[in-house]
Amino acid sequence: MTMARPKTGARERLLADTVAYVAAHGMGELSLRDLAAAIGSSPRMLIFHFGSKEALLVEIVRAIERRQREFFRQVATAGTGTPVERLRTMWQHLTDPAFAPYQRLFFELYGQAVQGRPHATAMLDGLLSDWIDPVADIFEQMGMSPGRAAQEGRLAIAVARGLLMDLLATGDREAMSQAFEGFVSAYNPGGAPRQALNRPSDEG
Description:
The protein is an all-alpha fold. It has two domains: 51 residues; 127 residues. The chain contains nine helices and no strands. InterPro entries: Homeodomain-like_sf, HTH-type_TetR-like_transc_reg, HTH_TetR, Tet_transcr_reg_TetR-rel_C_sf. Pfam families: TetR_N (PF00440). It comes from Nonomuraea jiangxiensis. This is DNA-binding transcriptional regulator, AcrR family.
């Protein structure tokens, strides 16, 4: 006899409660038993809806990533500040110390996903492509073509993720922020890349 298919609404409520709990209490060891008790559920129901503790962790990361992308979309379309200032706002958001536990979990599961671990591979879906649009939108506001903006957006994502990993490894927030500032300051106030960078010209 097989278990009934999980109801999407119940699963989403459990995930929302789990993310809220983690946001308030941090990741810690995240025992399924303690987590279930805290959100008024049971380990059995968490396994029923998510399959395993590891798969639940992946869903937590994906949920937080969705929230961050929505925040970035709001920043990208805000009517205040220059495009470069909006990139700085994004960096400040990502490096908020409150996000450090999420960032550690993100990179831990990212490593497992690229190794092909079955519980983590779902994390790769949209891991880059879903981020390009909100970031590329900022570069389009600098007057770049959509293709060029996507290229610069991809670069910005790679730079930010690399610096975030170094921040977690070293704890040197000042050095990483200076490095990111060096990246964004390569765009003049009008948004165009400086010629000294020798980046490909925007061919429209």
